Structure formats: structure tokens, C-alpha cells
């Protein structure tokens, strides 16, 4: 495996399929997920990973694990022979190659217990910075595969240190994607959105996901991670995203309706995004309720910023829901300090409120805006007089 080698393969879709198969609420995905799951396990000879599966995931054939285990033993025996031969007759550089091959195979078959020490041993024998980074990136993917957040975090830091010592452009960009996925997993949507948007035109990390999946992840992250202006300038005006939006109608409606203040469409698309992208994916599923809540708050805040007051009836019509729902939803967010408004239950009127600091900010912005207009008018007048 040369210094510019392709990443060690590990099919991260397998984790997604396993997650779906263990969630009864995703039963409509089970048939397709089960087929892809077991085909991928057999293709990648993942006998060690099979030993970690719960009893509810039954293989299609009783002897599958034993057959794959035999293949593992045969392949590892061949690699060990290469290592022994290299140790006896070749130099340090030549020993590192079969050691990386062994570590890579253990990663591919999902053998976390043996892969980690093998990766460390290969690191010790590997001189090239690029190849060392590849081994650390393999650790990060193994952490993603097993949902090990601390393992991902520590190895991202190691990879960052190595990249600062001489990592190339491609590996630097791959690490951005890895870091963004980690941020999503720990609910840091803004940090994730910034990295994902930076990587749109330089994406090469196909070892973790396809480009269309990457774009979908970016759009979802920007929902919470960007304000309305950012959604317009960084998402809707982005050429890479726009080229794929027609293939993702739910996300297209979700993003456009929020920016265009079409709140009824936004609420419908938010439900569809939750069902299609959030609950079925292990990176988003633990945060699905949080995400939906934050997007509702964002939409409510957006409409309230446009009015000093409006009726519950008008707001419920704007969102396409009942006044009872809007009343209960707003009341909960007001009580938690997430919305700056009050509800008069007698008159059915919602009145926006601002703190003194917010009022000063608004007043300052208005003065600056009016000042700019005045200066422009003076400049135009001076040109006419001159």
C-alpha cells in the first residue's frame, strides 16, 4: 500500500442496515435492509463482526459465520506469511506493507479487537506521513462503524496533528468530512455545517458515503447550523447543491419553504425529512426529536420577527395546523425561554417581546441602514450639483 494508497475499505452502510433492522418502527425498511446487510457481510467476509450481532439478527444460512471464519483464517495466514518473509529477507519499508495489509483486512472484516493493535503496529513500521494518516483515518471509520465517539474524537486529533506535519490536500479534505460527521453525532450542527459546506466542491471521501448522501447530510446540517441568510447564500445559491436538489424533493421543499416563509409546506416537509433522513440513519436518529424541535423554533422565530403581534388563528393558518397545536407548542417554547413572545389567551393574540439589548440592536441596525440611504442620496445630489 503506497503513500498515496486508497483508503482501507469498511462498508459503513452495514451499520446503517443493522440499525434499521433493530428498530421496529422502521419495519417497512426491513426487507430491503436485511438483503443488503447479509450480502455486504458475506462479500466483506465479516465473521468477527457477526459475533457482535444480537440474536435477533439471524443469518440467511446457519453456516455463514463458519464459512466466513474459514476465509478469514486462510487470508490472514497468507498475510502472516508475507510479513514473515519480509522480516527475514527484506527491509523495514517492505515489512510495513504487509503489516498495513493485515491491519486493513482486519478493519474490512470488522474485527475491532484485533484491528486496533494491528493498526498501531503498522503505524510503528510506516515512515510515510500519508500512509500513517490513512491508518488513523481507518481507525476513525472503525469508530464510526461501532458508534464509538471517544475513539473517533481521539483519532481525529491524531490525524490533525499528522496533517499539520505534512498531510496532502486530499487527506486534509477527507478529514474535514470525518470531523463534520463526528460533530453531527455530538449535536454540533453549526460546526458540522461549516465543514460540510467547505467540502462540497472538494468531496472525495466516498469511503464513508456517496456524494448524494453527502449533499443530503449538508442540507440537513445547515437547517440548524445556518441562519436564514446563510441558507440563501450558502445552500440555495450553491451550484453543487442545486445540481442535486431535484433528486431530493423533500429536502428541496424543506429548504426553500423555510427561506420563502411558506410555513405550511415547511411543516409538511419537516415531517417527511424526519421520516426519510433522520430516524433511519444512526448519525441523526438520536437527535431527531432535538432537530425537529429546533427547526420548529426557527420557523416560529422567523415569523414572529416579522410582526409585533398576530393572532393565534392567523399563525395556525400559516403553519397549516390547529390553533390548539400552535397554542400548546408556543407555550412550551415560551416557558423554556426559547421564544420571545407572550400569548393573550383571552384575545388570542401573540405579542412579540424583545429584551432591551435586542431593542438596542434593532435600533442600531435601523440607524445604520437609514444612514447608508442618506449618504447615498447626498452622493447622488453632489454629482447632480457638480
Automatic annotation (TrEMBL):
UniProt keyword annotation of Coiled coil present: yes
Keywords noted in UniProt: Coiled coil, Proteasome
Alphabetical list of SMART domains matching this protein: PINT (SM00088)
A Pfam family reported for this protein in Swiss-Prot or TrEMBL: PCI
Residue ranges constituting the PCI domain according to the UniProt record: 188-357
Any single GO CC term annotated in Swiss-Prot or TrEMBL for this entry: proteasome regulatory particle, lid subcomplex
Function as written in the Swiss-Prot or TrEMBL entry: Component of the 19S cap proteasome complex which acts as a regulatory subunit of the 26S proteasome, involved in the ATP-dependent degradation of ubiquitinated proteins.
Subunit text: The 26S proteasome is composed of a core protease, known as the 20S proteasome, capped at one or both ends by the 19S regulatory complex (RC). The RC is composed of at least 18 different subunits in two subcomplexes, the base and the lid, which form the portions proximal and distal to the 20S proteolytic core, respectively. Component of the lid subcomplex of the 19S RC.
Protein name: PCI domain-containing protein
Biological source species: Filobasidium floriforme
Amino acid at each position: 500500500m503506497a503513500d498515496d494508497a486508497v483508503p482501507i475499505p469498511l462498508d459503513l452502510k452495514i451499520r446503517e442496515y443493522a440499525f434499521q433492522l433493530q428498530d421496529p418502527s422502521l419495519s417497512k425498511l426491513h426487507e430491503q435492509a436485511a438483503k443488503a446487510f447479509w450480502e455486504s457481510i458475506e462479500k466483506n467476509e465479516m465473521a468477527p463482526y457477526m459475533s457482535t450481532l444480537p440474536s435477533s439478527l439471524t443469518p440467511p444460512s446457519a453456516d455463514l459465520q463458519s464459512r466466513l471464519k474459514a476465509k478469514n483464517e486462510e487470508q490472514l495466514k497468507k498475510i502472516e506469511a508475507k510479513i514473515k518473509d519480509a522480516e527475514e529477507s527484506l527491509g523495514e519499508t517492505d515489512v510495513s506493507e504487509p503489516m498495513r495489509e493485515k491491519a486493513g483486512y482486519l478493519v474490512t472484516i470488522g474485527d475491532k479487537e484485533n484491528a486496533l493493535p494491528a493498526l498501531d503496529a503498522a503505524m510503528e513500521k510506516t515512515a510515510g506521513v500519508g500512509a500513517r494518516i490513512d491508518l488513523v483515518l481507518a481507525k476513525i471509520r472503525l469508530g464510526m462503524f461501532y458508534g464509538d465517539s471517544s475513539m473517533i474524537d481521539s483519532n481525529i486529533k491524531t490525524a490533525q496533528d499528522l496533517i499539520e506535519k505534512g498531510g496532502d490536500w486530499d487527506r486534509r479534505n477527507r478529514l474535514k468530512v470525518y470531523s463534520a460527521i463526528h460533530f453531527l453525532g455530538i449535536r454540533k450542527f453549526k460546526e458540522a455545517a461549516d465543514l460540510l459546506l467547505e467540502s462540497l466542491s472538494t468531496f472525495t471521501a466516498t469511503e464513508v458515503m456517496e456524494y448524494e448522501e453527502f449533499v443530503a447530510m449538508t442540507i440537513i446540517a445547515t437547517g440548524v447550523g445556518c441562519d436564514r441568510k446563510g441558507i440563501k447564500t450558502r445552500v440555495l445559491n450553491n451550484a453543487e447543491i442545486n445540481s442535486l436538489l431535484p433528486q431530493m424533493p423533500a429536502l428541496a421543499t424543506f429548504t426553500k419553504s423555510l427561506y420563502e416563509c411558506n410555513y405550511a409546506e415547511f411543516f409538511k416537509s419537516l415531517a417527511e425529512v424526519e421520516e426519510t433522513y433522520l430516524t433511519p440513519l444512526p448519525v441523526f436518529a438520536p437527535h431527531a426529536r432535538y432537530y425537529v424541535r429546533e427547526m420548529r423554533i426557527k420557523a416560529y422565530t422567523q415569523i414572529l420577527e416579522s410582526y409585533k403581534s398576530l393572532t393565534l388563528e392567523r399563525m395556525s393558518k400559516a403553519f397549516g395546523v390547529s390553533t390548539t397545536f400552535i397554542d400548546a407548542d408556543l407555550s412550551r417554547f415560551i416557558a423554556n425561554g426559547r421564544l420571545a413572545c407572550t400569548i393573550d389567551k383571552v384575545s388570542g393574540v401573540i405579542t412579540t417581546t424583545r429584551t432591551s439589548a435586542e431593542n438596542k440592536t434593532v435600533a442600531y441596525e435601523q440607524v445604520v441602514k437609514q444612514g447608508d440611504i442618506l449618504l447615498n442620496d447626498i452622493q447622488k445630489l453632489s454629482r447632480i450639483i457638480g
